[in-house]
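Readers of this paper often ask what the protein records in our data store actually look like. Such a record has a labelled line for the sequence and another for the backbone structure tokens. The tokens are whole numbers drawn from a learned vocabulary of local backbone shapes. We quote a single record here, exactly as it is kept in our systems:
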Amino acid sequence: MNADPAVARYLPSVLTRTESDALLERIVAHFDAHGFGLWAVEDLAGGELLGFTGLTRPRFETWFTPCVEVGWRLCSASWGRGYATEAARAAVHAGFTELGLHEIVSFTVPANTASRRVMEKLSMVQDGEFEHPLLAEGHPLRRHVLYRLQREA
């Protein structure tokens, strides 16, 4: 999945096997440090791994951090079936009910209309834009839109 150019269209690059393994190590370390993180998304009928979703604390600082982000990444063969929305909705619910969060954010590049639709289906509201600090100035994906969801909503 991480080596698929379609999946990485709105990410800085596809990942090598070594980079993908390092991502998995960061996911495990996040769980160890915070008690929550990204979950595997599986097809219940066949057990096939479709991707991941969950809650994370971003690894950068900007005007809206510290915060907790809901995110997802699915293999392209599973797109358009509602998996991202269903899985992200479960993560948001866990964040508000089990973790007691008051707010959850999400962000992506403006052109990523599929992820923005998921955010809107979660009742998230766009709240500005920012330059992603982990991407170099001038990078075509540096500009991001921020969405927020308050527990009360």
